[in-house]
Design brief:
nine-stranded antiparallel beta sheet, alpha+beta, globular, two-stranded antiparallel sheet
Length: about 325
Amino acid sequence: MDTIDRQLLNLLQVNFPLVTEPFSELGRRLEIGEDAAIRRVRSLKDRGIIRQISAVFDSHALGYSSSLAAFSVPRERVEQVAEIVNAHPGVSHNYERDHTYNLWFTITVPPGTTPEAEADRLAAQANPRAFRMFPTIRLFKIGVAFDMVGDGTDMLITQPSAVRHDPVELDESDIAAVRVLQRDLPIDQRPFASLAVRAGMREDELIRRARMFLQLGAMRRYAAVLKHREAGYLSNAMVVWNVPKNMIEYIGPEFALHRAVSHCYERHTYPDWPYSVFTMVHGRSIEDCEKAARELSNATGITDYVLLYSVREFKKTRVLYYEHT
């Protein structure tokens, strides 16, 4: 990738234009023109650096509920159980991690069921040795992008991200807009036009609704998601922290400020799992992740923590809302 590619990736991740000709606008900002912007984006997708360009919706704002879950699975059965978990349409992320609880996945479900009920159903099929549910109690940070331009001092670009505390009211046209905006954007001159046809509305109406979703917090952002390894971020770890309950409200925001932390949550604990705060850290190497964890520990005084590295990625996709109703 050259400098223009890297600048383009930053724009795609944090400032994608919701206009009729977004690649013309990107080309103008980079002074390369629309045709060059389209060629470069297509090339970055073909090379596997861009995973998808689409809306990132807030599941709670759309009336859905979600949770992180972990299975403890014998090593020889990990792939078999991963296939069972992956088959669930509400599972968006599924990773093997280097821990007794070695299969970690997120599950998002519509009204009428719960993540716990669906995880119970998966456990009945998969027969893990044990499993735990880790719903979010408090969210301290979400909504970041990989910095492709910087010198490596700052791994991530933090983006403001609206957080809804109650579901939004959507009409049928809103739901039609959600269905198409969550799909991968066509890379052509007027990409929202073809999405609008599928939604049964005018192009300008679809764009208006997308902007409205952002203002309401129903959409966290409209952006490119990168394949982090292909983008040069070869290592990531879920770092879990044993934080005293009376300190969580102070420690969580402190963790969230760190340049290598992309996500930070308070989650449930168990007698065999005292870790109440979860952070995702990213780096160009394992050493970067370990350094970030040490810095977080030194800054807060929390010394009881574990780094759970991704061993294998079994599934990483977007939850598709209103597709099974």
